[in-house]
Amino acid sequence: MHIARRTLAYDGHYKLSLLQVQDGDDLLKRERFEPGTAVAALVWNTRTQQYILTRQYRIGPEAEIVELAAGMVDGDETPETAVRREVQEELGYDIDHLEQIARIYPSPGTSAEVITIYYAEVSHQSGQGGGLAEESEKIEAVPYSRQELEQAVFEDAKTILAVQWARLRHKSTPE
């Protein structure tokens, strides 16, 4: 299979491309959602010994959900620079230590989105957090103890992946 033709159908906050996919003698028509490249971080405060997630309204579920601090990579930013910026904007923390957990396609059947998920250790809150007013963000920090995080139920795929990573990591590391 290969892309025989690509047409940009929508170029707004996100992009949508119409694709013609050649599959042998068949020509398939598909839509491809192109939101861009994203980053997310499971944040661990080494001083308070708590994870810090975010709560905010999300368009997809049309509700507030608890999830990792996350956002889009801007322009020619690296994912590492973007995740540091997002943690500062959303939670007000500078990252002391950063470790990549995974780079994923959350929905490869319809979307070009790539998310790089990190584990980030923080110890010093140098800003207010809460998101950017110019982006109409209203983000609440939600702390979890290690035990609370391990028992919590989440709906967001990137958060589930990172929490599972943390659960497995803690089982293999003596406390």
Describe this structure in words.
The protein is α+β, with helices and mostly antiparallel strands. The chain folds into two domains: 2-32, no CATH class; 36-171, Nucleoside Triphosphate Pyrophosphohydrolase (Alpha-Beta Complex). The chain is built from three helices and ten strands. The protein has helices at residues 79-91, 146-151, 157-171; strands at 2-11, 15-23, 26-34, 37-45, 50-58, 63-67, 69-72, 93-104, 114-125, 140-144. The strands form two sheets. Strands 4, 5, 6, 7, 8, 9 and 10 form a seven-stranded mixed sheet that branches. It has a three-stranded antiparallel sheet with strand order 1-2-3, with no helix packed on it. Strand 5 (50-58) and strand 6 form a beta hairpin.
Spans where pLDDT lies below 50 across 5 or more residues: none
Content-based structural category: alpha+beta
How far from one another are the termini? 49 Å
The SSE string, one letter per element, is EEEEEEEHEEEHH
